[in-house]
Amino acid sequence: MSNGLYAAVLLARDGFSAANVLESTFLPVSDRIVGFGASVFLSPAFASAELADPRPDINSRIIASVHTGRSVVATYDEVARGNAGEGVDLLVLAGTWRDAILSEQENQEARTHLAYGFVQKHAGYRIRRIFSEVAAQPERDFVGHSIEYRLFAEFPESGRALFLMTEESVQGIHGSLGNVLFKRYKPVLHLRDSDQQLLLAALGGATDLELANGIGVTLSAVKARWRSTSARIGETMPELVADLDDHEGRGMQKRHRVLDYVRNHLEELRPYDWKQRIAGREAGADLYWSSSTAESLPISERVFRAK
Q1: What percent of the chain lies above the pLDDT cut of 70?
Q2: Cβ-Cβ contacts under 8 Å for 286 (sequence gap 6 or more)
Q3: Least confidently predicted of 127-141, 200-214, 239-253, 268-282
Q4: For the residues of 185-249, what is the DSSP string, one character each?
């Protein structure tokens, strides 16, 4: 295995990364994958250093850092602190589609679906800045014509350019994807890691047995987690887990109410440093961020999330 490929595998396995694969069912099997997007959260120190001294090939530096064991990908704790503090920095590692084999309408659809998938995977994080370095002309045109990204640095010798999206750059663009990403609502449920893991797995509609297999615990352990999570939620939002009527299905009623809530409040399922949040509140600060939903498009999507 080559060094670059090995580093990419480590990045997907260990880092805070996400990827979207677009697949068309109307094309031959060999051509069905028509688009790919990937992103990664950056350590605050690395992100600030890149802005202070912008250079081309930021993606290469990130992958090289993983390979050498000095990763600049944000850790769980850094993401938790960012969500409770100044925010997290996000880099678009890739956002590409097969321009040559798609019609104009399909190209537009692929770009829209990649953008929707990007928002879907990052809803609920308190995003501070989004980095995107582009080189190929279609991607450069797509980002360059965006009213949300701003050109931060250009590198004529390599044909690359670095774009930046911030809360300031999306202000006033109502209904845009960037505006959705930079809205902020505070989590209130105080969920533990085990609660978040269960609810994230359950959002896809899995049964308890499927949850047990996916999480890697016994069926009885899953049922115990549901009880524990329900009790935890009841401490802050008792109406979500209250018995509305007395029948055998009331447990499922509770689950559906909880899942409906967290599906529209993904901030509840993201890493969060509650100690920092309390300190900030005592100092007079209040922090918010939000999630969003959107309709699916005809090109099917397969989403992979690194654990």
Answers
A1: 80
A2: 186, 280
A3: 239-253
A4: ----S---HHHHHHHHHHTTT--HHHHHHHHTS-HHHHHHHHHHHHHHHHTT-GGGS---S-STT
Residues near 276 by beta carbon (within 8 Å), at least 6 away in sequence: 81, 84, 85
In contact, 64 and 113? CB cutoff 8 Å: no
Tokens representing 245? Answer: 């009527």
Strands 127-134 and 160-166: antiparallel
> For residue 151, what is the DSSP state?
E
Per the CB < 8 A criterion, the answer to whether 289 and 126 are in contact is yes
Percent of the chain clearing pLDDT 90 (strictly above) = 42
Q: Give the side-chain half-sphere CA count within 13 A for 38.
A: 14
Phi–psi pair at 26, nearest 5 degrees: -95, -5
CA distances from 116 to 36, 172, 295 (A): 13, 20, 9
Alpha helices in the chain, H assignment, sequence order: 3-14, 44-52, 58-67, 76-84, 104-122, 137-144, 167-170, 177-181, 193-202, 208-215, 219-234, 250-263, 274-282
Of 74, 93, 95, the residue nearest 85 (C-alpha): 74
What CA–CA distance (Å, rounded) separates 57 from 48?
16
Give which of 97, 132, 125 is closest to 111, Cα–Cα.
97
**What is d(CA 234, CA 144) in angstroms, rounded to the nearest whole number?**
47
Instruction: Give the whole-angstrom CA distance, residue 5 versus residue 97.
Output: 20
- Tokens for 67, please give them: 């390979």
Going by their DSSP bridges, the two strands 88-97 and 160-166 should be labelled as unpaired
pLDDT digits (tens, 9 = 90+) for 159-212: 899 999 998 888 877 767 777 888 888 899 999 999 998 999 898 888 899 999
